Amino acid sequence: MARIAADLAAGGHRPEAFAAAVWQALGRADAGFLAGVAAYRGHPWRRELADPPAVWAEGGSRLLDYGGAGPVVVFVPSLVNRAQILDLLPEATMLRFLAGQGCGRCCWTGASRGRWSAASA
Questions:
Q1: CA dihedral 7, 9, 14, 17 (to 10 degrees)
Q2: Which of 24, 51, 77, 102 could form a disulfide with 83 if both were Cys (CB 3.0 to 4.6 A apart)?
Q3: How many helices (H) and strands (E) does the chain have?
Q4: How far is Cα 82 from Cα 59, in angstroms, rounded to an integer?
Q5: pLDDT (tens digit, 0 to 9) for every residue of the chain, 121 residues total?
Q6: Stated pTM of the model
């Protein structure tokens, strides 16, 4: 900070003016970000694909059974996207595709505050 203040003073700029300009730039960036989030949330598209049956549920968490006859694989979606990102449309679903390839698996959706074990499924 001291170096920035010295550079501003050497150039004849007031530190208060620099701070105000930084805050204005941050405000514009925040406004753009918030407008983008609002546009994303307000988009009319909604997923119409039905969820497969849940083999376990607790609170807002579910373990969904996508079928398949092979070894079980549990998919845990990222914290950024909902689990539906792996199963969006009938023609664009990674989880149902893998079931058709013989991979038996489940998808964890949501988060639970409770404890889960294989015995509770």
A1: 0
A2: 77
A3: 3, 6
A4: 16
A5: 788 888 888 888 888 888 899 999 998 989 999 999 999 889 898 888 888 888 888 887 888 888 877 888 888 777 777 778 888 888 888 888 888 888 876 666 665 445 545 544 4
A6: 0.55
